[in-house]
Amino acid sequence: MIVRYEPWGAWVKLESQAALVALDREGVRALGLDGGATWSGAAGPSAPVEVHMAVTARCGAGCEGCYLDARPDGVEPPADVLLRELDALRDAGVFTVAFGGGEPTTRDDLDVLADAALARGISPVLTTSGLGLSDARLARLRSFAQINVSYDGASETYTRVRGFDGAAAAEGAIERIAGAGMRVGVNVVLTRESFPRLRDTLVRARQLGAREAQLLRYKPAGRAASLDYLARRLTPEQARSLGPTLRELSSALCDGGDFHLRVDCALVAFLSADEGLARDPARLARFGVFGCEAGGALAAFTVHGRVAPCSFAGATDLRATDLALHAGDPTLARWRAHVEAPPEPCASCSLRGVCKGGCKVVAAHVDGSHGPDPECPRVLDHAEETRKEAPVRGAGSTNHEKETAA
Amino acid sequence: MTGPDAAADGAEKEPQRRAEVAHILGVRVGHGANCSSIGSVIDTLFATATVGAAIFAAVVASLASEEVTAVAPPGKNTDHDAEPAPEKTP
């Protein structure tokens, strides 16, 4: 196991099973270990546990909502640059690196990069569209701990989310990766069109050999950062129904333990509408649920070699190779400071410690501010109450107000 | 460092590790493989108490037996007058 001491104890990454464990100081001592200077020195912010690395901006798929705005002629950093970035991850004590882009399987050296991550004690994982996954490309994926294929549903649903029908290619890729004995999962983007078909999508993915499905909130970044976002995002009713939906899907699909359901950081805010979950935030924390960890447990490396709080946020001035200096970066510090002292209604939310204020990228696009997630059910209720108490005349100027007025 | 029972002949045996569920603040199961947003397994939240207990029991067993490698500490605070590290949760 790999131990990274923290002011509160240590992160422990197990090697006999896929698990990252947060242990308190007493638990660390019980293992015969001691945090030493980390426990007695000045408290600084922790390094990320997971970094998302864009290894290329090349992609021919042309998904309408691509958060990176990847294109066939996108930039692609040379391997030596990425190897130095992997050095920086090792030096910072990062546990997992997720390769993405762009379409990372277009790189001829993907296997070299994966092996380089492993050699540095970092688990490499990968996201792919599955398009053009030749046998030669498939052979380069063996070192990855898990490969997720973007799969939003069968043909019609896939097309509605991405603007073209790549479902057959994705399904073929899931089947072939699983058939080759590699662990495969799917990434499912939730839009108001794909959400009603979610159960069918997951059943199909599981039939094809997927071991896990990660549900992703649609986010206004890259080509999705337009007014069209407002027509694609989940409806408020769908957002409120996420908790019961997850409960039902877990019961139907995950009982045997061979298929798992994940939610992304941005979806955690929607769980505030679920009374059972909102009543027991300690349970979410105990099962390791992460909300917005941008600039905290999560960071991203852009294709231009800069650190960003997450893949959807703008880059900071900090070079990826200088990740060890993350504590002094003012942008990352601003993201962390907001989480430490959020405004209402986040300040009094029971899920605050887990959710951490919802998605700031959505807030910036919809409300033009680095504030509470405007699509969170609790934030919507709070806004409604505030409006009743102090009615505002006029249609307002934020994207959210424009849509509401319309 | 090696496992608790790995002492060679004549060498001082390491103290038995005592991993306990009570000291686990959280467990993130699985790898996750999304490159754009961090994910968390959620179905375990709805599982029976038996399933949940099995997850933590397996973790405790691994904590007590796996070899240890320590990696880099967290970033140092540039404010040298800062208070010592508090024992707060992750």
Give the helices and strands, then pairings.
The complex is a heterodimer of chains A (406) and B (90).
Chain A: E1 2-6, E2 9-13, E3 19-24, H1 25-30, H2 37-40, E4 50-54, H3 79-92, E5 96-100, H4 110-119, E6 123-128, H5 135-139, E7 146-150, H6 155-162, H7 167-179, E8 184-190, H8 198-208, E9 212-217, H9 229-232, H10 236-240, H11 242-253, E10 260-264, H12 275-278, H13 281-286, E11 298-301, E12 307-308, H14 330-340, H15 352-355, H16 360-367, H17 377-389, H18 399-405
Chain B: E1 24-29, E2 39-41, H1 49-65, E3 69-70
Task: Describe the overall structure.
With 406 residues, chain A is α/β, with parallel strands linked by helices. Helices cover 36% and strands 15% of the residues of chain A. Chain A has a 9-stranded mixed sheet with strand order 10-9-8-7-6-5-4-11-12. In chain A, strands 1-2-3 form a 3-stranded antiparallel sheet. In chain A, helix 3 links the parallel strand 4 (50-54) and strand 5 (96-100). Chain A starts with a strand and ends with a helix. Mean pLDDT of chain B is 77; it is low at 1-10 and 75-81. Chain B has a domain at 21-65. Chain B is α+β, with helices and mostly antiparallel strands and 90 residues long. Chains A and B meet through strand 1, strand 2, strand 3, helix 1 and helix 2 of A and strand 1, strand 2, helix 1 and strand 3 of B. Strand 3 of chain A pairs antiparallel with strand 1 (24-29) of chain B.
